Amino acid sequence: MDAAASSGTSGIRIEPIAAAHIDSFHHALDVVAREKKYLSMLEATPLPQTREFVMAMIAKGNPQFVATAQDQVVGWCDISRHFFPSHAHRGKLGMGILPAYRGKGLGRMLIETTLRAAQKSGFAKVELDVYEDNARAIALYEKMGFVREGIVRRAARIDGRFIDAISMALLFDERGAAAIAANS
């Protein structure tokens, strides 16, 4: 399921994560986490925990895709299905892109691919939380059809500063199509 790249993403492939990507994914996760702007974690979990997470995502059939350039992970998007059976129709989206690859349409490519896989996997709702000061991500999620469901006050505390988050969600209808049309 490789996606050919557009002009700004020439040479980048979107593909399902595999065991061979884990070390590079771990590095990319750590780079984005250490920016202390976008993720809840401030550094990547230790490599064995990252490996366990990825292998569990693969085993469970949860959608997880990576963007690679020269066989190195430069971005990712995944949806983790909720654990409880009564919530298993819902999943939580997480994503990140290395700084040098932002603003080129890669986020849209990753999220479109991951949402298509979520539809095929029977998800009815995809949720996410995004820090309120991350305007670029909020705009992308809204273009993809996510709507704001609420505010999580003081969702994070980074370097002594509280940050609110916006809870957003995308609903699929019974046919698996987005219930809210994306502004393409």
Care to describe what's here?
The structure is a single chain. The protein has about 180 residues and is an alpha+beta fold. It has helices at about 20-35, 45-60, 105-120, 135-145; strands at about 10-15, 65-70, 70-80, 90-95, 125-130, 145-160, 160-170. α3 links the parallel β4 (about 90-95) and β5 (about 125-130). The protein is globular and about 40 Å long.
Key descriptive features of the protein:
disordered C terminus; 184 residues; 27% helix; seven-stranded mixed beta sheet; Acyl_CoA_acyltransferase; disordered N terminus; GNAT_dom; alpha+beta; 4 helices; MshD_Acetyltransferase; 32% strand; 7 strands
Kindly state the number of beta strands: 7
SSE ordering:
EHHEEEHEHEE
Quick check: average pLDDT?
90
Low-confidence stretches: 1-7, 180-184
Alpha-carbon distance between the two ends: 22 Å
Helix content: 25-40%
